[in-house]
Write a structure and sequence with these properties.
4 helices, mainly alpha, 159 residues, globular
Length: 159
């Protein structure tokens, strides 16, 4: 098969990489939070938006998508960087869809609950932190995909 015909996105590999990233993210986030709580008192509480939470999110997101990108790149066998980066894009798409569905269910099944604002709280510092987190995840996925892409020996042509 011609090399240019083999490039592209393999959605099965991207999905598998994203699932690996979710698992790796859950483990690394829990470990980083516990490590921080062990070293510095008091431990970080859920729901707090602090610099510590941002740093833990950046590091665990990078590590998660590094693993997910590696899995996607290894599984795709070509275009590892592209397939690895797409794990982060796939993750943000799934996140937006889940947020919308949960908001709709919250409005339908909870009486007296008002509709959340259209920006979902993404203004100012939160928006900037979210953008930096996404770019970090994207870079982690790309790097992991490049690391996971199997090396191919040079093909010698007879002239």
């Amino acid at each position: 098969m011609e090399e240019s015909a083999r490039k592209g996105i393999r959605w099965g590999s991207v999905t598998l990489g994203w699932l690996a990233a979710v698992l790796a993210g859950a483990v690394s986030s829990a470990l980083l939070r516990a490590l921080y709580g062990f070293m510095v008192e008091p431990p970080v509480e859920r729901g707090e938006f602090t610099a510590t939470i941002i740093v833990i999110s950046l590091v665990s997101g990078f590590l998660a998508y590094l693993v997910g990108g590696f899995v996607a790149g290894r599984s795709a066998r070509y275009s590892g960087g592209l397939n690895g980066a797409m794990t982060a894009v796939f993750g943000i798409i799934v996140g937006v869809i889940l947020a919308a569905v949960l908001a709709i269910f919250g409005v339908i099944f909870a009486e007296g609950v008002t509709m959340p604002p259209a920006n979902f709280g993404l203004v100012g510092g939160t928006l900037l932190a979210s953008l930096i987190l996404f770019l970090t995840n994207l870079f982690g996925g790309y790097l992991g995909g490049k690391l996971g892409e199997p090396s191919r020996p040079e093909v010698k042509r007879h002239e």
